Amino acid sequence: MNPVVTVFRRELASYFATPVAYVFIVIFLLLAGALTFYYGGFFERGQADLQPFFIYHPWLYLFLVPAIGMRLWAEERKSGTIELLLTLPITMWQAVLAKFLAAWAFVGIALALTFPIWITVNYLGEPDNGVIVASYLGSLLMAGAFLAIGSCLSAATRNQVVAFILTVVICFLLLMAGFPLVQGFFQSLLPQGAVDAIAGLSLYTHFIAIAKGVVDLRDLIYFALTIGVWLYATAIVIDLKKAD
Amino acid sequence: MGDLTMIETSQLTKRYGQFTAVDGISFKVQPGEVLGFLGPNGAGKSTTMKMIAGFLAPTAGSAKVCGFDVESQPIQAKRALGYLPEGAPSYGEMKPRAFLEFVADVRGMSGEQKKKRIDDVIGRLQLESVLAQSIDTLSKGFKRRVGLAQAILHDPPALILDEPTDGLDPNQKHEVRALINAMAHDKIIVISTHILEEVHAVCTRAVVIAGGKLLADATPAELEARSRYHGAVSLTAVNTGAARQALARVADIESIEIDPQDHRITAFPKKGRAIFMPISDVLKSQNIEVSELQLESGRLDEVFRSITLPEAKEASA
């Protein structure tokens, strides 16, 4: 069996070895529901779509995904198992990728468990299911980007709280870069090209683009690059910090 | 190209900024040898082992495991090696069998062979009684044994064990040493320890490391021969004064020391002289009663101190 698959399976199983995983999933589902129904006005809008559901995902992930990401490497370093893992016949890349994919799959499971809301909206009306599938894809990609950032910062410290806070801060900045508030601020300082570049870096901009139902290759490349770059950085940081 | 059957390091060096943790260490270990790494805490033993195991990259120099360079052929080198990291880390939430299955899978074992190897190490390290518990809940001794099981699972030609008996009770220490001895005849084994009795119990050769430098490389007997106690004779006499006077007649005795606690007499020979027979003859002819008479082979702890202390002073200066 490929070592990536082996490590992936062990990691994913380890999430469910403690009640924490179940608590996480319950909190995620409760918050996703509450935001959709209370703040999104799911019923009041009278429209058969899941926009009020997906629109809050960036903010939901902002706190929940770093909580998953923070333990990825910090835990391995604290318990010393990083030494065990990296002296098995497995490359650094395989280890980084396997652990990331396991965390991503876990978030994916939590996201998939929101399926009743999809059933609900189909029961109440006739939504555009293509848009909903695209939104789920966008949401999953955004979670992946958050996790890749979390993976890198988790590798930088053995303190999980520090890893959590740093990840929240960076994810927050990357979200806010696409908001009119931030855009307006930069518009007075920088040429339009630079402002567009900052907006182009924003996770939020690309998420919203996909969530509208338009799966543009550029948005996919953006997420793939973001995940790739942060995972690459993870491997570098692990190498640098191994001796500590 | 290095020898295919050895662990070999050449000028292995690790620096952290200005600090040199390991300073140009070279040695070779062959199958059938059990090499003991001796040295005070912080001497660079673990860092050296981490570099051979492929966890840390050397700043300079190289290490080869069974002919594979740990930097340019890391996967092959890691396949040939079983490694017990310091503190025997393992995934605490797993049960021992699941953990061993994980390691077996990563090492590419499958089917009958995997099951056979896992059953074999579980038997060898007597893990049967704890198979139902997660590793987190195990005692220190059992955790260490799970770590050892993981290291020998793929029956590697080379083994590196960082403090394999640390934290074990005397019975468990004995078992682990017996296990190492049983594996020793066809494997390359490197262990680190700061327990000197362990050198006698398992090692065929010992290197002393302090301040990152290799200060001695010898068999345990050769190391003992460096001791000033080597060839000395100790005895406990019923009448200490009379015994002392009798010993004054032996020409080859350089000096005599008497332990103030138990009045045990130790006579040191002049360089290269044997004094056991002359002493026993004198005691017989003078009719001096002794309750104990012993030829000293040398004291490792004293040799260890004399080798490592100048270094330690240098390092702290």
What is the strand and helix layout of this fold?
The complex is a heterodimer of chains A (244) and B (317).
Chain A: H1 3-15, H2 20-39, H3 51-54, H4 57-69, H5 71-79, H6 81-86, H7 92-112, H8 115-124, H9 129-156, H10 160-176, H11 180-187, H12 192-201, H13 203-211, H14 217-241
Chain B: E1 7-16, E2 19-29, E3 34-38, H1 45-52, E4 60-65, E5 68-69, H2 74-79, E6 81-84, H3 96-106, H4 111-124, H5 140-152, E7 158-162, H6 170-184, E8 188-193, H7 196-202, E9 205-210, E10 213-218, H8 220-225, E11 233-237, H9 240-247, E12 253-258, E13 265-269, H10 276-285, E14 290-295, H11 300-316
GO molecular function, one term (chain B): ATP binding
Keywords (chain B): ATP-binding, Nucleotide-binding, Transport
Domain ABC transporter (chain B): 7-236
Characteristic terms for this protein:
heterodimer, A: 244 residues, mainly alpha, 0% strand, B: 317 residues, alpha/beta, Rossmann fold, Alpha-Beta Plaits, 2 domains, 6-stranded mixed sheet, 4-stranded antiparallel sheet, 11 helices, elongated, ATP binding (chain B)
What features would you describe in this structure?
- The complex is a heterodimer of chains A (244) and B (317).
- In chain A, 79% of the residues lie in helices and 0% in strands.
- Chain A has 14 helices and no strands.
- Chain A has one domain (3-241).
- The two termini of chain A are 32 Å apart.
- Chain A has helices spanning 3-15, 20-39, 51-54, 57-69, 71-79, 81-86, 92-112, 115-124, 129-156, 160-176, 180-187, 192-201, 203-211, 217-241.
- By secondary structure, chain A is an all-alpha fold.
- Chain B has a 6-stranded mixed sheet, sandwiched between helices. A 4-stranded antiparallel sheet of chain B has the order 2-1-4-5. A 4-stranded antiparallel sheet of chain B has the order 12-13-11-14.
- In chain B, helix 3 crosses helix 4 and helix 4 packs antiparallel against helix 5 (140-152).
- Chain B has 2 domains: 7-225, P-loop containing nucleotide triphosphate hydrolases (Rossmann fold); 233-296, Alpha-Beta Plaits.
- The two termini of chain B are 41 Å apart.
- Chain B has 317 residues and is α/β, with parallel strands linked by helices.
- At the A-B interface, helix 1 and helix 6 of A face helix 2 and helix 3 of B.
